[in-house]
C-alpha cells in the first residue's frame, strides 16, 4: 500500500501530477469539489483552509527583540544545533531551506542559501511568520501540526497560490516527558523533494530531537506524569506505560492532584458532582476503577490521596509562574485544563490556572508573550489581551494592524452581545 503521507507514488510524472492537482485546486475554489488526484490529507487540509484568500500571504507577528526573546526561551532552542548538524548541508546547497516552527506554526528559524532565502521572503517564509493552516493554508509544517504526523506537500497541493512553486516535508516534535506538541521541523525546496528520502529525513531528525530532549531532562524512573492541559481526557505515564483515562477518572485524578493532603469521599463528591448530586455509591465505584487503572501502590483511601511523586502539567505551569518564569509557563501551557469538564472542582481549578497565566502575561506587557497568548484558544477572544498587545507594539510593527483589526472585530461582537442581552431582559 502506498504511503499516504508521501506526495508522489513511484513512477508518477511530477509535471503531470502538478497539472492534475492544479486543476483540482481550481475546482475546489470554484465549486467546492475535489477530484480524484488529491490525497485525503490534502483534501481535508483544503477544507480546513477554505475561508482563506488563495492569494494571501502568511502574516508576520513577531520581529526584532520580541522574536529573539521568544525563540531563546523556546524548548526547541536546545536542539537547534542538532537540526543544523543533520540538515545544515541541505540548507546550504543552494536549493533548499531548513525551517523550525513552534506548536502554533510560528516560524522560529529559517536557514539556507542566501539566494533561496530571498525567494522565500517574497511569500513571508521568514522567522516570526505564522504558517499554521489558519493563516497560511495547506503547507508541510502547518499541516504536520494540524494532523500531528509527518507529511509532504507537493507544489499545487498548497492551498495558497504564491506557495505552489515550492515542495516541502515536515515532521512534528513532541516533548518526550509530557507528549506535548512543541513544533515541527521542515525542509523546503523544489519539486525534487517529493521523494521518500526527504520525508524519512525529517522524521529521523524529529525523533533525534526528541531523544536529545529526553536526555536533557532526565526523569526519575518511578515518577508518575499526568498530562491534562488542552485535552478532554488525561494521559497518565507510569512505569514506562501510557494510560489514557476516561473523562470521570481524569476529573478524579486532577482533583486528587490539586489536594495532595487527601480528600474524603464527601469532599470529592462535592467537587465532582456539586451540592445537589452526591452519589456515594457511584463515587466509590469510580474510585475503585481508578485504583485499578493507577495500581494499588498509587492511590490511598481514608482519605483518598495519591502516593509517591507525581508530576502534573498544570502544576508545572503554576510552579513556573510562582518562580516568575512567564515565558516558561506559557511554553508549558498547551490549553485549558480538561476543557470539556463541568465538574465544579475542575472548573474552579481551570479558571484559577487560566487566570493566573493570563494575569502574568498581561502584567509582563511583552508583545511576544501577548502574541503567544492570543494565538491560543484561551486567548483568541481576549479583548483585553489584544488591546494590551496593540499598546505594547511600536507603531510600525507588522503585527499591530492585525491586532487593531482583531480589537475592532471583538469590540463589535461584544457590543452586539450586550445589546442582545439587554433586549432579552426588556422582554
UniProtKB/TrEMBL annotation:
One of its GO terms (molecular function) is DNA binding. It comes from the Bacteria. Gene3D superfamilies: 3.30.450.40, Winged helix-like DNA-binding domain superfamily/Winged helix DNA-binding domain (1.10.10.10). It holds the Pfam family GAF. Residues 240-306 form the OmpR/PhoB-type domain. GO terms for biological process: phosphorelay signal transduction system; regulation of DNA-templated transcription. This is Transcriptional regulator. Keywords: DNA-binding, Transcription, Transcription regulation. The lineage of its organism: Bacteria, Bacillati, Actinomycetota, Actinomycetes, Micromonosporales.
Amino acid at each position: 500500500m502506498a504511503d499516504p503521507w508521501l506526495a508522489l507514488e513511484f513512477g508518477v510524472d511530477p509535471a503531470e501530477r502538478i497539472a492534475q492537482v492544479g486543476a483540482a485546486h481550481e475546482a475546489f475554489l470554484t465549486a467546492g469539489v475535489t477530484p480524484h488526484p488529491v490525497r485525503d490529507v490534502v483534501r481535508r487540509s483544503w477544507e480546513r483552509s477554505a475561508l482563506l484568500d488563495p492569494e494571501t500571504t502568511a502574516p508576520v507577528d513577531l520581529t526584532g527583540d520580541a522574536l529573539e526573546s521568544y525563540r531563546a526561551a523556546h524548548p526547541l532552542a536546545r536542539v537547534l544545533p542538532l537540526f543544523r548538524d543533520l540538515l545544515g548541508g541541505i540548507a546550504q546547497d543552494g536549493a533548499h531551506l531548513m525551517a523550525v516552527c513552534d506548536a502554533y506554526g510560528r516560524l522560529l528559524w529559517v536557514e539556507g542559501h542566501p539566494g533561496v532565502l530571498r525567494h522565500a521572503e517574497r511569500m513571508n517564509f521568514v522567522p516570526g511568520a505564522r504558517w499554521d493552516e489558519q493563516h497560511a493554508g495547506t503547507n508541510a509544517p502547518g499541516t504536520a501540526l494540524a494532523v500531528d504526523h509527518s507529511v509532504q506537500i507537493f507544489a499545487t497541493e498548497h492551498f495558497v497560490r504564491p506557495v505552489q512553486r515550492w515542495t516541502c516535508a515536515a515532521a512534528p516534535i513532541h516533548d518526550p516527558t509530557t507528549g506535548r506538541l512543541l513544533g515541527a521541523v521542515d525542509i523546503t525546496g523544489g519539486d525534487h523533494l517529493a521523494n521518500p528520502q526527504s520525508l524519512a529525513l525529517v522524521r529521523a531528525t524529529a525523533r533525534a530531537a526528541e531523544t536529545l530532549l529526553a536526555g536533557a531532562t532526565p526523569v526519575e524512573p518511578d515518577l508518575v506524569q499526568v498530562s491534562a492541559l488542552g485535552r478532554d481526557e488525561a494521559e497518565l505515564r507510569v512505569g514506562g506505560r501510557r494510560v489514557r483515562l476516561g473523562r470521570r477518572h481524569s476529573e478524579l485524578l486532577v482533583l486528587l492532584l490539586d489536594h495532595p493532603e487527601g480528600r474524603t469521599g464527601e469532599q470529592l463528591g462535592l467537587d465532582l458532582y456539586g451540592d445537589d448530586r452526591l452519589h456515594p455509591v457511584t463515587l466509590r465505584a469510580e474510585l475503585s476503577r481508578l485504583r485499578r487503572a493507577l495500581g494499588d501502590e498509587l492511590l490511598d483511601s481514608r482519605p483518598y490521596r495519591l502516593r509517591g511523586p507525581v508530576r502534573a502539567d498544570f502544576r508545572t505551569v503554576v510552579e513556573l509562574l510562582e518562580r516568575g518564569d512567564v515565558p516558561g509557563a506559557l511554553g508549558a501551557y498547551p490549553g485549558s485544563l480538561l476543557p470539556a469538564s463541568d465538574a465544579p472542582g475542575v472548573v474552579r481549578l481551570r479558571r484559577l490556572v487560566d487566570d493566573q497565566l493570563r494575569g502574568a502575561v498581561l502584567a509582563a506587557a511583552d508583545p511576544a508573550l501577548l502574541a503567544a497568548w492570543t494565538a491560543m484558544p484561551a486567548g483568541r477572544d481576549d479583548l483585553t489581551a489584544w488591546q494590551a498587545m496593540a499598546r505594547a507594539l511600536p507603531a510600525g510593527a507588522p503585527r499591530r494592524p492585525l491586532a487593531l483589526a482583531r480589537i475592532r472585530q471583538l469590540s463589535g461582537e461584544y457590543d452586539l452581545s450586550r445589546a442582545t442581552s439587554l433586549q432579552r431582559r426588556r422582554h
